[in-house]
């Protein structure tokens, strides 16, 4: 798959929205675990007050954002890990955070990795998704997506089509600057139960798919 072209040929917002409905998998060495991306957030680089690269900050911790589009950026908060992919050309530190998937592959293993958590709790958040994959380190940080156990299916024929993709402000971004805290840079499948904080009353009968 030509990840480098996919993650550099348009705006980060457009890439993030296009990822919705695509299959994300992780090969744990014995099987593929994964599901359809139902929620993702765009981070817009040096001008984005919520981005790890805001103001041109650069360190070993966020180096993944500065690599060429299609490079994995994994970061940690406390004991939790988060999966991002760099977008744009090298040294233009933008990226996409994958926030949630609707799981379809390796459900028993993912449930075990989540200590028995099942249903929407399995993968309805970025840290939960990484736990479900059995990932507890930054081992794959800085690796090109193409040379890693992760894969995103870029074949449009296998992409699931949402009835509606909602654009909203990102989660957990509390900034003094309302411009960036309120920008609609989070995209999700309307009515999908695996989306972070989706209320039961808003669940769609077909989980938001056509």
UniProtKB/TrEMBL annotation:
Give the signal peptide range: none
The answer to whether UniProt assigns keyword DNA repair to this entry is yes
Biological process per Gene Ontology, one example term: base-excision repair
Q: Name one GO molecular function term.
A: DNA binding
Q: Supply the InterPro entries for this chain.
A: Formyl_transferase-like_C_sf, MPG, MPG_sf
Q: Does the keyword Hydrolase apply?
A: yes
Q: Supply the alphabetized keyword list.
A: DNA damage, DNA repair, Hydrolase
Q: What is its EC number?
A: 3.2.2.-
Question: From which residue to which does any coiled coil extend?
Answer: none
As for family, the record states: Belongs to the DNA glycosylase MPG family.
**Would you tell me the protein name for this molecule?**
Putative 3-methyladenine DNA glycosylase
